[in-house]
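Q: My labmate handed me this sequence with no annotations at all. I'd like to see what the chain might look like in three dimensions before we decide whether it's worth expressing. Could you predict it?
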Amino acid sequence: MFRLIVNPNAGRGKKKKQYRRVLARMRERGLAFSVSETHARGEAKELARQACEAGEDVIVVGGDGTLHEALNGFCNFERCALGLIPLGTGNDFAAAAKIPEDPVRAVDLIADGAPQFTEYMQMPQGVRGINVIGTGIDVEILRRCRRGGLFRGKTGYLLSLIVSLIKFRNYELTARFNGKEEHYKTLIACIGNGYRIGGGIRMCPAAVLGDGLLDFVAVDNVKKSRIIPAFIRLMKGRILEESFTRFERCEHLEVVPEKPLTVQVDGELYDGLPFVVDIVKDRLRMYRG
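A: Here is what I predict for the chain of 289 residues:
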């Protein structure tokens, strides 16, 4: 039995037709399912918990935000699996998990495949992430996006990125990983299970889902004169080629900022959450490519 957790506002509410195609395909494939719609932020977490307690596989029909909430409510790992039909704006984790953006093909992936063990990231206070966790300019970008304006979605994210690059000041922080301690004056520090954010910006371009490691990327002490070239490299997925980019693969990371910072987890903002991340393997089973 599948429980579809549906965000009716995913993709700015413009994907009603795709949602109807999902339901039609589920029926065509003879899949037993029920539907629960979210109507408020955070509701997917409770719906996922209820579904797991009933022994149902959870299928998120929406974007990265709804997936994040569902993961944080997920339980009964031994019996239940997680799926995603990407109808959001960015669909960044779907790209890492090789889940088709076409809703019919995404349903077929679930119907024809078996769930695979899929790593996720565990933080303090019970917070889980599955795509990218970070602090620095990515937080400023998300804040600008949520203040709204004329442009939304991927275009709004890109414009917010440009404005943030112009105005942002580096943060002082210390990172601990692989038995080392490094100090950075950073534009952004992030750790990726997936490889992209913001609807296609490859912040952790070398990250590979299923390799058992997380990719830590920090842009360290970048000069104003290097911002534009760095931006171009970032958009081309080549940020790791910059001399000021620090890159490590690890299973555990601690980031200690000089001053309190907000952390974004899969695009959701958390104040007061310690930036401590561990990879969790061989626990979550997920339908993916």
